[in-house]
């Protein structure tokens, strides 16, 4: 069968797929026909370096089950989730916000089932929570009769380098009540996982209602999940993520010293955010500039995306096989684009 052209595929997509499903590059979409390791290929054979490594299969079932577990175990309904905030003592301040929300809800007769948080908030702009925050937040939610749920769907499985799970960055004295996992557990195969305590699991089974998922626990998915874990261990990808990520952060910080558009570089392992700002003091998000940069990088065959409330944070979350050579290439191209943008602004 003859393959469709990019325009034919795009026309078919517009006909069959809802408009709410957005394209990454709507003005000039890329048709990816093949991928291997950290590279993707379009219909012309052009090789793109993948720094996005986004959702191969969204696994919302893991979070859905976690919420069901929490609500059944606690007999409460409400959920606390995180947005964003800035403070001199962030761990205490953020935890106090959790307590304030709980107190306000209790005054209205509401009760919380869970505090739900991605261990490293990605959509918020690649945020690294302050050490001690989870412990304090867990204390508040436990006193309110709820549980702490850690979402490791994007940041687990060795991505942070220093630890296998991102919640472990908080210290050895912290363990969530429920952990959700997906995406990397199957390396593109649709599989997700929920881990919890025996007590919470038994409270769920005590309902007499069987948990059913059409493909849940099937041997093929389980075999794939086990194989992925074996590859992570055999190829030492956790240590690799730390080594390459540290190098990339170092290189990006050198760019920060050179380009005022970069307001902050933050991250751990291969989870890194570059915060672009219009002004170093006011820190207004440089949204337009960020969009320009990822468009220019795409023209250089490098795929990168933005995130954060202002869509101004360059989001580095590449495959764990990403190399120092890949990192150097991205930084060099980014340097060229920032330099060109600066000269254009001066003119």
From TrEMBL:
**Keywords carried by this UniProt record:** Pyridoxal phosphate
Requisite cofactors:
pyridoxal 5'-phosphate
The record lists the membrane-crossing segments as none
- Superkingdom classification of source: Eukaryota
The record's Pfam families line, in alphabetical order, gives: Aminotran_3
Q: Which family does it belong to?
A: Belongs to the class-III pyridoxal-phosphate-dependent aminotransferase family.
Record protein name field: 5-phosphohydroxy-L-lysine phospho-lyase
Origin species, per record, is Phrynosoma platyrhinos (Desert horned lizard)
């Amino acid at each position: 069968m003859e393959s469709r052209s990019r325009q034919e595929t795009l026309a078919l997509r517009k006909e069959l797929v809802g408009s709410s499903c957005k394209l990454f590059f709507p003005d000039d979409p890329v048709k990816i026909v093949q991928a291997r390791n950290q590279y993707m290929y379009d219909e012309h054979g052009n090789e793109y370096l993948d720094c996005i490594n986004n959702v191969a299969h969204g696994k919302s079932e893991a979070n859905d089950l976690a919420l069901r577990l929490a609500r059944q175990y606690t007999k409460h309904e409400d959920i606390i989730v995180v947005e964003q905030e800035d403070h001199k003592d962030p761990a205490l301040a953020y935890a106090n916000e959790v307590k304030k929300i709980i107190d306000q809800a209790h005054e209205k007769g509401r009760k919380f089932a869970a505090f739900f948080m991605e261990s490293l908030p990605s959509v918020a702009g690649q945020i690294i929570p302050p050490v001690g925050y989870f412990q304090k937040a867990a204390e508040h939610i436990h006193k309110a009769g709820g549980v702490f749920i850690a979402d490791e769907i994007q940041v687990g499985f060795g991505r942070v380098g220093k630890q296998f799970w991102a919640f472990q960055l908080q210290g050895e004295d912290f363990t969530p009540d429920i952990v959700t996992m997906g995406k990397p557990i199957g390396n593109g195969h649709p599989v997700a996982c929920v881990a919890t305590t025996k007590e919470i699991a038994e409270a769920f089974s005590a309902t007499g209602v069987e948990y059913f998922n059409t493909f849940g626990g099937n041997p093929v998915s389980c075999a794939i999940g086990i194989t992925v874990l074996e590859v992570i261990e055999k190829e030492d990808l956790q240590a690799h993520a730390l080594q390459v990520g540290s190098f990339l952060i170092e290189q990006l910080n050198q760019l920060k010293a050179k380009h005022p558009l970069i307001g902050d570089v933050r991250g751990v392992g291969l989870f890194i955010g570059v915060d672009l700002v219009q002004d170093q003091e006011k820190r207004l998000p440089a949204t337009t500039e960020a969009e320009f940069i990822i468009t220019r990088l795409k023209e250089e065959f490098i795929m990168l995306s933005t995130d954060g409330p202002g869509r101004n944070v360059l989001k580095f979350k590449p495959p764990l096989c990403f190399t120092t050579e890949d990192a150097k290439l991205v930084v060099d191209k980014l340097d060229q684009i920032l330099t060109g943008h600066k000269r254009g602004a001066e003119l």
